[in-house]
TrEMBL record:
Keyword Flavoprotein: yes
Co-factor requirement: FAD
Entry-linked SUPFAM superfamilies: Acyl-CoA dehydrogenase C-terminal domain-like, Acyl-CoA dehydrogenase NM domain-like
Lineage: Bacteria, Bacillati, Actinomycetota, Actinomycetes, Kitasatosporales
Species per Swiss-Prot/TrEMBL record: Streptomyces lydicus
Family: Belongs to the acyl-CoA dehydrogenase family.
Ranges of residues in domain Acyl-CoA dehydrogenase/oxidase N-terminal: 6-116
Protein name: Acyl-CoA dehydrogenase
GO (cellular component) term, any one: plasma membrane
Alphabetical list of Pfam families matching this protein: Acyl-CoA_dh_1, Acyl-CoA_dh_M, Acyl-CoA_dh_N
Domain Acyl-CoA oxidase/dehydrogenase middle: 120-213
Domain called Acyl-CoA dehydrogenase/oxidase C-terminal: residue spans: 226-384
Length: 390
């Protein structure tokens, strides 16, 4: 991988920096993070601005260095993050781009890029959690439809979503990892009930979703019937391999702010804290290098320039290296905000402080997108070649 920037890439950075400088001052104030309908309106409006300026598809089609430059510059400028567009833009959309039919790509991808439609993720269930293979939500074929009955939980952004990437069981007699199917569920279909869940951080980012004989057209099936486990692994590869990369840039910015705050309030005199911040700086620098490798290898495979050397990677889909990133990033994020609590001192009890809210939110990262134990199993089996546990 050549990390030296070309003239074209330097020109892209300059154009993007100029554009950000011109448009960011025109944005309205960001909404209350607990108000998801307002956040949807804000986030989709920002996505539309990116679309009109030609930057909306940078996560999907651009060269790896262009994608990383985009992340660096938007974070440096303090631009909005993907927010409510997270699922559609960073893992449902890429999954449909890889696994969908031409008609499905034409139907669902442009509205995601324009910010017209928002997606949520319907994988986890009350009795399954990260063990997706044990999910029970059933889909029975009836003519041209599937009739879906069951319940999902921890459904990201369901309260404001138009579509749901839904994993269902279509063959209850098949082994656990077979008999599953990936469907695109319209959230306004009769029989869909959404009940928001309030998290420790005070937001309703997640929800319970109840499905009572919901009819989903068979044309909404992505991949073959009973092949949903394989399609889901594509979704999770994008989620773990690339969906969180922008947050690493944000964490590096927070780390710099922590150092400045510590110098200002005298906490910098604590040698233990200084060593902790230094180690975190090294951790996030290493994570950024890992991102560069993962993104570059996936893009090289997609471009047909040769088979990806990323373990398990193929066809532009991030490989098992994404699990290495997810595993270490989840813990580094928690350690970052634990360090923030040390810098804040008594201020760490102020629930209204941004770093305190982010500390509470960071607790979910070792569970989201597959627990750390799941990631450890993937690394052990697919990278280290150790025997499967079961």
């Amino acid at each position: 991988m050549d990390l030296a920037y070309t003239e074209e890439e330097r020109a892209f950075r300059a154009r993007l920096r100029d554009w950000l400088a011109s448009v960011l001052p025109t944005l309205p104030a960001r909404p209350d993070p607990r108000d998801w309908p307002a956040r949807r309106a804000y986030d989709t409006a920002w996505q539309r601005m990116l679309y009109d300026a030609g930057y909306a598809d940078v996560h999907w089609d651009a060269a790896p260095t262009i994608r990383l430059i985009f992340l660096e510059e938007t974070e440096r400028a303090g631009a909005p993050y993907v927010g409510a567009n997270f699922v559609g833009l960073l893992h449902a959309g890429p999954t449909i781009a890889v696994e969908g039919t031409p008609a499905q790509r034409q139907r669902w991808l442009p509205p995601v890029l324009r910010g017209d439609e928002v997606w949520c993720q319907g994988f986890s269930e009350p009795d399954a959690g990260s063990d997706l293979a044990s999910l029970r939500t059933r889909a029975v074929r009836d003519g041209d439809d599937y009739v879906v009955t069951g319940a999902k939980i921890w459904t990201s952004h369901a309260e404001v979503a138009d579509w749901c990437e839904l994993l269902v069981r279509t063959d209850p007699d098949a082994p656990r990892h077979r008999g599953l199917t990936w469907l695109a569920l319209p959230m306004d279909a009769p029989g869909v009930t959404v009940r928001p869940l309030r998290t420790l951080a005070g937001t309703a980012e997640f929800a319970e979703v109840f499905l009572d004989e919901v009819r989903v057209p068979a044309g909404n099936r992505v991949g073959a019937e009973n092949d949903g486990w394989r399609v889901t692994m594509v979704t999770l590869s994008f989620e773990r391999g690339t969906a969180f990369v922008g947050e690493v840039v944000a964490c590096r910015r927070v780390l710099g702010a922590l150092a400045r705050a510590a110098r200002a309030n005298g906490r910098w005199d604590d040698a233990v804290l200084r060593r902790r911040l230094g180690r975190l700086n090294a951790d996030f620098a290493a994570l950024w290098r890992l991102i560069q490798w993962n993104v570059s290898e996936a893009a090289a495979a997609a471009a047909g320039r040769g088979a990806s050397t990323a373990p398990g990677g193929s066809g532009g889909v991030p490989g098992a290296g994404g699990s290495v990133f997810k595993l270490r990033y989840s813990h580094a994020r928690q350690e970052l905000y634990d360090a923030a609590a040390e810098v804040l001192g008594a201020g760490a009890l102020d629930a209204g402080h941004e770093w305190v809210a982010d500390r509470l939110s960071s607790l979910s990262y070792t569970i989201a997108a597959g627990t750390s134990q799941i990631q450890q199993n993937i690394v052990a089996e697919r990278i280290l070649g150790l025997p499967k546990g079961r």
